[in-house]
Structures are given as C-alpha cells and as structure tokens.
C-alpha cells in the first residue's frame, strides 16, 4: 500500500468525496451557549482541551465532578486548571495562540458537545477561591470566550463501545506507567517503585 499515492490536496476534491453536509449538521451550531447546550456542560465530568503552540498541537484531558467547567454567561466558560505534572503545555500554548477547542463527554451519553473559542489565563485570587476543592484552589482558571458550540452525534461513541462495561479492558493488558518510564529513561526512573507508589500518590495529590 502506497500511503502517498492518492492524497487529497484541495477542498473541491474533498467535498466531492464527502458530499453536502446534512442541514441538521449546520443548524445545530450556534455562537453562544444555548440553554440546551448548557445542560450538557453542567452534566459533564470530563473534557478534552485542544490548543495550538509554537511546537505544534496538544490535547489535554480535564476532569472533576460534573459541572467543573462553569458557565459564566452565554458567551463565557471558566475552566479551572487543577494540579498536574507542571508541564503546562496547554497554558504555554494559550499564551502563543489563544484559540482553543473543547469536547465534553458524559458517561453513558452518546452525544458529545464541542466548543470552539479563545482563552485567557486568569489568576485572580477571588476567582480561584470559588473553584476550591478540599480547601485547595486551582493555580489558574482559563476564561474561554465562545464562538461556536454544537453537539456531535453518537456514532463515534457507539462504534467505540466506550460506555459498554463488557468492552472494558483489564489494566494489566497494557504497560504500566512505571514500565513505560523505566524503559524510556533507561531505568533512571525506578519503574517498579513508581508503580508501587502511584496509588498513594494519586489519592493524596488530586488537588
């Protein structure tokens, strides 16, 4: 198979392959947070944040109790940046290019919600304190100004069987974090110790 033999390189060819989008796929997009879409955001405990920086693109998982992304008004979302690994890839990217995209997922629900907009990094202590969990505020909050919101149909979730417990994999089927880190660091990081310490570290450092 030649992967470079039939590359699509223009819009006309691409549209010829896929045809005209259905009316519903156009009508569902709005430039604000409609009350229907607000319900999806407030029910979602998990989102993917896409950003663009000088070194390329990045997608970062974000999760907290449902409604962790706050609807400030119909044009603004507030996303707390919780404790992590301090790579701050997403935040670095926002400083380079303010454009962001979000996909919200709700366990058991087939439809996802997509949001496009621009973001800024807010560190006002009063705002941060309103997002405190266990007495610990986030170090920053992304203020997302929305310019497009629409739902994605359930086909991807149905095809992937994402919410089907019978399709869930055993964690032991895949390399552990310690195994990966030990191999990639040529054992500079003690993999077995990393794995042994991980459950305690996760339980004590979520916030």
From TrEMBL:
Residues 167-187 are annotated as: Disordered. Residues 34-153 form the Pyridoxamine 5'-phosphate oxidase N-terminal domain. It comes from the Bacteria. Transmembrane segments: none annotated. It holds the Pfam family PNPOx_N. PANTHER family: FAD-BINDING, PUTATIVE (AFU_ORTHOLOGUE AFUA_6G07600)-RELATED (PTHR42815:SF2). This is Pyridoxamine 5'-phosphate oxidase family protein. It comes from Duganella guangzhouensis. The lineage of its organism: Bacteria, Pseudomonadati, Pseudomonadota, Betaproteobacteria, Burkholderiales.
């Amino acid at each position: 198979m030649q992967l470079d033999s039939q590359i699509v390189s223009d819009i006309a060819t691409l549209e010829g392959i896929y045809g005209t989008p259905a009316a519903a796929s156009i009508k569902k997009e709005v430039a604000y947070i409609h009350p229907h879409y607000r319900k999806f955001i407030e029910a979602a405990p998990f989102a993917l944040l896409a950003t663009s920086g000088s070194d390329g693109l990045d997608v970062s998982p974000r999760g907290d109790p449902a409604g962790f992304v706050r609807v400030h008004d119909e044009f603004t979302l507030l996303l707390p940046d919780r404790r992590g690994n301090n790579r701050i890839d997403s935040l670095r990217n926002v400083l380079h290019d303010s454009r962001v995209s979000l996909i919200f997922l709700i366990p058991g629900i087939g439809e996802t919600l997509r949001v496009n907009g621009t973001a800024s990094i807010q560190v006002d202590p009063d705002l941060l304190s309103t997002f405190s969990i266990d007495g610990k505020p986030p170090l920053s909050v992304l203020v997302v100004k929305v310019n497009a919101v629409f739902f994605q149909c359930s086909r991807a979730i149905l095809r992937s069987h994402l919410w089907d417990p019978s399709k869930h994999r055993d964690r032991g089927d895949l390399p552990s974090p310690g195994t990966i880190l030990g191999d990639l660091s040529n054992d500079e990081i003690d993999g077995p110790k990393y794995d042994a310490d991980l459950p305690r570290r996760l339980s004590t450092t979520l916030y």
